[in-house]
Amino acid sequence: MILAYDSIDDCLRFEILSSDGKILYKKNIASDPVHKIPRFDLLLQLTTFLEENKLLPNNIEKIIFVCGSGRFTAVRTACIVANAFAQNTNARLIPITKEQLTQAKEDFAEFCQQTPLAANTLAEPLFASEPRIHGKN
Predict the structure, then answer these.
(1) Residues 59, 125, 85, CA angle at the centre, nearest 5°?
(2) Which of 14, 66, 94, 129 is placed for a possible disulfide with 6 were both Cys, Cβ 3.0 to 4.6 Å?
(3) Rounded to two decimals, what is the model's pTM?
């Protein structure tokens, strides 16, 4: 099975796909429309999604996820969760960009046959811009 997720925008989207790209389970979680702050914790929501569908993490063979470009915190979190999940389950990573997903008309199935990163290779985030860190003078 393949886990796919996009957490870069103000909506969190999960899908479980078969190896041929058929959607088996899916879930969308909207953000707070007033403040544009996502109302979700990626790791908690991922765990809940797997539990709701009675899936074990070790059943996931590949993880397709959006690694950028986007906001600093969203992109880093997406990569950290994918890397940690892969390291603990031996799943292989297929990082994609938001632009690639948009070109594929938001269809994760387009990437199911893509060659994943080598085992034990960490995915790197793609930031829309360099983070601005402000300190006190």
Answers:
(1) 20
(2) 66
(3) 0.86
Q: Is 56 exposed, middle or buried (0-12, 13-18, 19+ CB in 10 A)?
A: exposed
The predicted-structure confidence for 45-62, as pLDDT tens digits, reads as follows 999 999 999 999 999 999
Coil, helix or strand for 120? coil
Alpha carbons 32 and 28: distance in angstroms, whole number: 13
Helix axes 42-52, 72-89, angle to 10 degrees: 50
**Two structure tokens written together for 70:** 């986007």
Cβ within 8 Å of residue 84, ≥6 positions away: none
Distance CA 49, CA 3 (A): 11
Residues in CB range of 38: below 8 A, 6 or more apart = 7, 10, 11, 12, 29, 31, 32, 74
Kindly give, in sequence order, each residue whose CB lies less than 8 Å from that of residue 17, ignoring residues fewer than 6 positions away. Answer: 1, 2, 4, 23, 24, 64, 108, 109, 112
Digit-coded pLDDT (tens) for 1-24: 999 999 887 788 999 999 999 999
